[in-house]
Amino acid sequence: MIKIYGDIIEELKSMDNKFNLILTDPPYNIGWKYSSKINDRKKNYDEWCKEWVNLCISRLEDNGVLGIINYPENNNRLYNYMIKRKDINFIQQIIWCYPSNIGHSKFKYTRSYRTILLFSKGKRYTFNALKQPYKNPNDKRIKERIAQGYLGTNLYDVWNINLCKNVSKDKKNNGINQLPRELCERLIKTFSNENDYTLDPFSGNDTIPKIAEELKRVAYGVDINNYN
Known about the structure:
Blueprint: E1 2-5, H1 8-14, E2 19-24, E3 33-35, E4 38-39, H2 45-58, E5 60-70, H3 72-82, E6 89-97, E7 113-120, E8 131-132, H4 140-147, E9 153-154, E10 158-160, H5 181-191, E11 197-200, H6 207-214, E12 218-223
Parallel strand pairs: 1-12, 2-5, 2-11, 6-10, 11-12
Antiparallel strand pairs: 3-4, 5-7, 6-7, 8-9
Helix pairs in contact: 1-2, 5-6
């Protein structure tokens, strides 16, 4: 894994590399203080997101994929911006659902999901469909398909995966948000191949690049903070 410490805007501007998959979980603009260097409450958050998204697109291979994990309201605004572009194509939105004991309110239901926006630089892109078991394995037609070697149907676009909590065995640093391993593995396996170049431009404690490296990708991570 190759780790770069610095501001994402400046680092992306200076990069020469092209990536097959750029996957990231950027700051959500909720006022979380990651360190003395950065608080993610930005007055110009939407414009800042557009700037780093533009730079990420410029760093994609011709058929590369950009995946952005964020709260739905943030990704909705990014989607409305990106869908108008001629140099990138919308693949789909995945809903990541999780149980949560944070954010309870007397006046609204508790948020328990984030969205994952997926765009490709070209019309053709890597898609290694992950399978789920058939729901009706005793059906005659399904039995025939299983006998022919079919493993199941493609995953749905709503994924129920628990958060990586402070008590989780994979948790590395209690001070920052960390993505669950299962979520990262699914996205990396689906939208990249072995030996592909991957980048997380907001890599934090490097969950995405470390898993990408384990999956035999050439993994890069960028972050302004050093959590090691």
